[in-house]
Amino acid sequence: MDLIAERVEVWAASIEDKPGSLANILAGLRETGADLNFILARREPDQPGQSVVYVTPLTGDAELEAAATLGFNLTARVHSVRVEGPNQPGIAAALAAQLAAAGLNLRGFSAAVLGTRFILYIGLDSAEDAAKALTVLQQIKSNCLGHRKPAPVKPGSRASCSIHGVLGAAAPRCPGERGHARHLAAPRPATG
To answer: Are 123 and 89 in contact (CB under 8 A)?
Structure first.
């Protein structure tokens, strides 16, 4: 699988929870030429009348200056990784399972599909967790989802690909790129 995984900086701003607040702040970024790849806006549950908007990327002095004027700050609370690749049924579940197997607790997980490709933004609690997630995703990229030719394995032994090996599943043959999503959704065998 052709995965593109990278760290991204996320910027956040508080806005009033009323009509036009989001449109106004985004218009301010548009005027500087900001080409945003991701926008997430939501109410602040513990602050009635307030919302927060997250955006990425902001680049160049003009965009950064305008963002600061509009109230955006680089968030220190959310450390994000952006993942892009060819869509297939169950890919989000497969990637979430890999991150869970690595012991990563996800702060956020937002994905969308456009045509034949998916884009996923993963929020983590620390820079260390984001680095670890990136490592996990790079291993998926370079191993079985990459995809090397599957080799037969003996029943009951660990399969020969990174997906099956990480999850400890036994299979007579790695199902290949299209089969991983279905295979990962199946219950894992008990280990003893």
So the answer is: no
Pair of tokens at residue 136: 């996990």
**111 against 171, higher pLDDT:** 111
Statement: residue 154 has pLDDT above 60: no
Measured on CA atoms in the order 188, 91, 89, 166, is the torsion positive or negative? negative
Nearest to 37 by CA among 116, 112, 132, 107: 112
Angle at 168 between CA 119 and CA 105, to 5 degrees: 45
The contacts of residue 103 (CB under 8 Å, 6+ apart) are none
**Are 56 and 80 within 8 A, CB to CB?**
yes
Report the amino acid identity of residue 172: P
Report the run of H or E that residue 39 belongs to, with start and end.
Answer: strand 38-43
Average pLDDT of 117-146? 85
Instruction: Give SS3 for 91.
Output: helix
